[in-house]
Amino acid sequence: MRVDVVTIFPEFFSVLDVSLLGRARRADLLDVRVHDLRDWTHDRHRTVDDTPAGGGAGMVMKPEPWGEALDELLAGAEGVTVLVPSPAGELFRQPLAREFATRERLIICCGRYEGIDQRVVEHAETRPEVAEVREVSLGDYVLNGGETAALAMIEAIGRLIPGVVGNPESLVEESHEDGLLEYPSYTRPASWRGFDIPPVLLGGDHGAVARWRREQQEERTRRMRPELLDRDPEAPHA
Ligand code: ADE
Prior knowledge:
The protein is built from 7 helices and 9 strands. The protein is α/β, with parallel strands linked by helices. The strands form 3 sheets. It has a 5-stranded parallel beta sheet with strand order 2-1-6-5-7. Strands 3-4 form a two-stranded antiparallel sheet. It has a two-stranded antiparallel ribbon with strand order 8-9. Helix 1 links the parallel strand 1 (2-7) and strand 2. The model has no long low-confidence stretch (mean pLDDT 94). The site of adenine has 12 residues, from strand 5 and helix 5.
């Protein structure tokens, strides 16, 4: 998968060199290219923002550098998914990560300030190289820009690409994969500071272990996230 990220803070993405994703990039499973939006400006100050039409606080990202960035990154491409992190977007949940992990090419447009001029999204939707433009929110809180959200999405999507996570079975038994939270995990020693591993996990009865884990998942989900129990796990917006 190729992922192009456009940002005014390319250095934000240096963490992609470490851990599993760093290995995936070196193994050519994940081709992440980070671009500085200011490379598509033409004035001496490399201006990317301006005051909001209609008035109000803050600044809005100008459409021209974004248009030129997309012109260049989309040249000769087809079927590209453009992601625009935004607190006003659809919620990024595990089904969306699974959906985006099937794509060949993503372009992530990281806005700052009060966001990007909306015409950038509207224009991108009309382009023949673009399969879809998705405005996506990491959660119901406001970040300073799309960069942190882009990093989280790259990690959530990237680890679903075959080969990125060494043991694919570890992807199956995780929080949100079946619509429930994950069961608690333990390792040796059997007793630590007066706290014991639940005996069923040491008894060797695989059926009993599976039943206990399922009960734990249900109990945890009821306690922490009761709203998940009323939802179809495959419905991204339910
Ligand atoms: N940019 C600012 N806040 C955001 C959020 N919650 N999700 C995605 N992008 C954002």
